[in-house]
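step=predict obj=Zinc finger MYM-type 1-like n=242
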Amino acid sequence: MDISSHFFEKQTTARKEEVKRKRAILERIIETIKLIGKRGLSYRATAEAAYTLDNEKLDHGNFLEILLLLSKFDPLLKNHFDTVIKKSKKQHQSAASSKGRGGFVTLITKTTVNNIICVISALLKKGIAQEIRDAGMFSIQLDTTQDINVSDQCSIIIRYVTDVVHERLVAVENCTSTPGKALCELVCNVLESMEIEVTNCVGNSTDGASNMQGQYNGFSTWLSNKAPGRIHVWCYAHVLNL
């Protein structure tokens, strides 16, 4: 074996080991994210900078705090955190004199968390969509509310039956327009993205607002044009609230 081949083999082996190590770390991070989501907890806090993670007096948020706790008993995570904290402190100290932001992969940033959540969301929606297609028919529940920015957010819930009744929140979409036609198009776009045929919709439930139940331009009327056999039900929770 010549020198170049030997060098290349060592480099390849080292890279494989590094990939294996990063994947093992990522597995722990993914499981932590899944746990926090399952428990309905918040992920973040104010002190998330990597160079502050060795300060136990600060609140680093549930995500980082759980990982830091695990690192006390997991040599792989401990080594990763030690490396990240050391590099982050060095970068932070030299930030004033250096040009550009610089950066290194930590796998514990908000960007990583958001990307993993998006992937989990896509996988869940894919599984739900398959169940709905297998069920053959479904109904839609629709409602809107304003967030803190006074922007309408539309929640879309699909109800279907397999061996049991399922009720799944499949989307929360920002509404730039709230007439019945616009809401119908919004719902159809969500269904299309999930590869679900709107013609299989057999029912829908909304509140009593005119843009939902209007005889000529309400959401229910526009939906009936695409799914003629569906039945509209006035949401009983809204009825009781009146």
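step=describe
The beta strands are 138-146, 152-161, 165-175, 201-206, 231-234.
step=end
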